[in-house]
Amino acid sequence: MRRGFDNNKYERIQSEHIKERVEKFGNKLYLELGGKLFDDYHASRVLPGFEPDSKLKMLSKLSDRIEIVIVISATDIEKNKVRGDLGITYDMDVLRLRDAFRNRGFLVSSVCITHYYGQQSADAFRAKLERMGIRTYLHYMIEGYPSNVKLIASDDGFGKNDYIETTRPLVIVTAPGPGSGKMATCLSQLYHEYKRGVKAGYAKFETFPIWNIPLKHPVNLAYEAATADLNDVNMIDPFHLEAYGKTAVNYNRDIEIFPVVNAMFELIAGKSPYHSPTDMGVNMAGNCIMDDAVCCEASCNEIIRRYFKSLCELKNGAQVQSEVYKLELLMNQAGLVLGSRPVEQAAHAVSEKTGGAPAAAIELPDGTVVTGKTGPLLGAASSALLNALKKLAGIEQEVDLVSAAAIEPIQTLKTNYLGSKNPRLHTDEILIALSSSAAANPTAALALRQLSALKGCDMHSTVILSSVDTDTVKKLGMYLTCEPAYEEEGRKYHKK
User: Fold this and answer.
1) Closest Cα to residue 189, out of 64, 24, 69?
2) Per-residue model confidence as pLDDT tens for the chain (496 residues)
3) Which of 198, 136, 134 minimizes the C-alpha distance to 167?
């Protein structure tokens, strides 16, 4: 993989910058962590070289000074809100995050339930946490938030919230997803700290948008694509421009809320330590891009993937048209056109040759594109996967890695006993069959050893793949795009 990002430099300078910010506020800093802490796959896709757990590794250098507070909105608990990438509810993700942080040696001191106004589901979740021995705090809905600053920064506003007991200099406030109330939790803590005579500080740690690269840089456009459902828009920070005469990129929500946050600082601490929302950030990622061209290409591919995803979700009714329009606009801004990638062209060429039957293509690390077509034994994705492994292993395409005799019993199991109408093997099934064959077949074993080389490869399908195939491709670390079309368009129900 071509690298565009210096991860070692990032871990070094980012930890030093956060350490400096902690010291600036007398060794008590509440750090709002936006985005993902240990599974930031978006960053790893648009900044090749960035490791998904880079931020966690970086913070490990300060682990003895850190404690983590996980925030969850009572509204999200009540709605059973689900993380789109993991398919689990936010309340379950709180437990997942806690376990993950603790397994890495971090102190997770408590959970804070925000936006609380007596919801029964929130009460039940709190009781569950307390039975587990997890300290839990409540932060309440405040009328007029965030505009009514005088009420918010008073005993009738933040003053009614539970004070979260913390013991370490750096308190990281994180959450399962956006809109959880992380910033309000930090500001509420500042209010309580100042009342106790502790002059604590606040800062924000978000990777995107990157403040010190151009507004329309593909990396920043890719962030807009990733947050199309939130309607985030990257903007030049007008407060930063006025204060310093320098352009910096931020996003609309932080720019819109900054006057309010500034006013809160003034009421809580007497004056604000910041002149702009960019000042509040501690992100050093822009200083670690070492090959801009690589990051631009990766980001453009990410925008295309997001657009295909939105088209497929619109097709199955899970997407709104406005989000598709926004992604179309971003495609135009980045100068991107569907069908221009070799992997798309190859898949469509095979489909046309087979009378419009589903086809798939995979672009290998060296730029070679292999294809797969629908057959009596394998689906197009399974066929492309086997062909890719053959190519990587230097095996002739005519060689059968898995014999028909090995596949047919699996087909019989699927159709005769498990109720499937499709006898063709999915990607997970063909990999199991390949693994079984590898025990007695050295060629199959050679092919199987190439699986790790598929990580980071682009794959395109001319139809929407099943959830089974999609999950398998994702587990292999491949980047999948699908045309917004079903294999059988006449059907009204399509199993995911």
Assistant:
1) 69
2) 789 999 999 999 999 999 999 999 989 999 999 877 777 889 999 999 999 989 989 999 899 999 999 999 999 999 999 887 777 899 999 999 999 999 999 999 999 999 999 999 999 999 999 999 999 999 999 998 888 999 999 999 999 999 999 999 999 999 998 889 999 999 999 999 999 999 999 999 999 999 999 999 999 999 999 988 888 899 999 999 999 999 999 999 899 989 988 998 999 988 999 999 999 999 999 999 999 999 999 999 999 999 999 999 999 887 678 899 999 999 999 999 999 999 999 999 999 999 999 999 999 999 999 999 999 889 999 999 999 999 999 999 889 888 888 888 888 888 888 888 888 889 999 999 999 899 889 999 999 999 999 999 999 999 999 999 999 999 999 999 999 999 877 664 556 5
3) 198
d(CA 234, CA 96): 31
User: What class is the 7-221+230-292 domain?
Assistant: alpha beta
Q: How open is the CA angle 21-196-28, to the nearest 5 degrees? A: 15
Residues of the chain with CATH 3.40.140.40: 346-482
How are beta strands 170-174 and 66-73 bridged, if at all? Answer: parallel
Query: What is the 3-state secondary structure of 115-137?
Result: EECCCHHHHHHHHHHHHCCCCEE
Which of these, 427, 379, 378, lies nearest to 400 by C-alpha position? Answer: 378
Contact between 107 and 66 under an 8 Å Cβ cutoff? The reply is yes
**Ranges in the chain annotated CATH 3.10.630.10:** 7-221+230-292
- Best CATH choice for the domain 346-482 from the list 3.40.140.40, 3.40.50.2300, 3.30.420.40, 3.40.50.300: 3.40.140.40
Strand partners of residue 69 = 110, 173
Q: For the chain, how far is it from start to end, CA to CA, in angstroms?
A: 32
Q: Which helix (H) or strand (E) covers residue 110, if one does?
A: strand 107-116
Q: Token pair 């600082």 is at which residue?
A: 265
Radius of gyration of the chain (CA): 25
Cβ neighbours around 495 below 10 Å, total: 8
Contact 214, 289 (CB under 8 A): no
Residues in the chain: 496
Residue 203 phi/psi, 5-degree rounding, is -150, 165
Residue with token string 């589901």: 121
